[in-house]
Amino acid sequence: MKTSLLRLSFALIACFSLIGCASTPYYEPAMVMDRALPEQPARAEAGSTAASFATVAADPATGDDVKKLRAAHRASMIYTAELGLRVDRVDAVQTRAERLVAEQGGYIGEASPGRLVIRIPAEVFDETLDALAALGEVTARQVRALDAAERVVDLESRLRSASVMRDRLIVLIERAEDIEHALKAEQELARVSEQIEIMQGRLRLLKQQIAYSTITLSITPTPAEQRLTPGIPIAWVRDIGNVFRERSAIDVSTPRRLRDGVDVDLPEGFIRYYQEAYVTQAIDANGVRIRVRRFKNFDDGPLKFWEQLVLRSLDENGRLDLQETEQVAFERGGPGRLIKGAKTLAGEEVRHLVALGVSDDGDYVYCFEAWGVARHVDAVLEDIKQSINTMRCY
User: Fold this and answer.
1) What is the rounded CA–CA span in Å between residue 84 and residue 100?
2) How many other CB atoms sit within 10 Å of the CB of residue 69?
3) Which CATH code is given to the segment(s) 235-244+259-389?
4) Longest Cα–Cα distance in the chain
5) This prediction's pTM
6) Tell me: the pLDDT tens digits for 71-116?
7) What span, in angstroms and rounded, lies between the C-alpha atoms of 29 and 23?
8) What are the phi and psi torsion angles at 154 (to 5°)?
């Protein structure tokens, strides 16, 4: 009995020592920035990884050497970066950044307008960071490197010791000669097992941070007066891209006098609820909207000009995924162009069609639009195209 009690006491003392080590607070080695650093006192041992890395990083003329050194020590390094960009169109650049990350095998950890937290495989960290920086004007760029080798070795060593102690405690429990000693050993076994789980979790996190680097991308808009591309200068073209931004209430319970509309035959199943000042608006029972308008042309602007301007508005203002345009014919006037676009809104796919034409004398621009929930628009698509063919562009 005394011998068993003595063995159990020694085992418990060893457990307490192990648990004390396992509960040591997590620490982080000093971080190294990927840019010129001020002169540092030589505190690291000569020839160590940290010393050589800091030396190279301190020399602004050895950026390539920094990348080579990273590649050599990547198995134990955790890289994080903060990148700030200034761009003309935040949402478009953010979409391009998300696509680039996916192509590189990474993923988005967090996303909000103008901000992405990116996890990227460590082996493509440098090229991904450079590719993201090329998307706009760089306002901030900071890279940090953390050598986790010592921490990984420390955790793995303590895990091995804890696993050995856990096995010994299991043997002691099996050999315990009374319930009191068995209960004490089981209590310590539970504590050691908990510490093993904690250390395993920390080790998994460290290895994940080593395998996947983190890039925090912040995107801000360029001030309007500094943008390379000015805004669309024609109000009715800007309006084309805004049809899905507001849910407008249409009341046709009280018929009104319709006059001065654009000359077009509407599809069957649509009713006019507005027609005045060369604007015709109609709707069907499923909420598909049609709007036909005529505008004074500028300087005999050709169809190609209006097509490009409308495409830009649908992209910038409407945020639509655009398809290839196709030629359409009007009853009177020259040939026109039909533009198709779609996007997801509130979980529902919506569609927007725009047909453009210029009168034979070049005095007027005609614009035929149809939009609504995609499945309803598709159901009447052929009827809409036939309606477009009936437009008289005088």
Assistant:
1) 16
2) 19
3) 3.40.1000.10
4) 114
5) 0.53
6) 555 667 888 899 999 888 888 899 999 999 999 999 999 999 999 9
7) 18
8) -60, -45
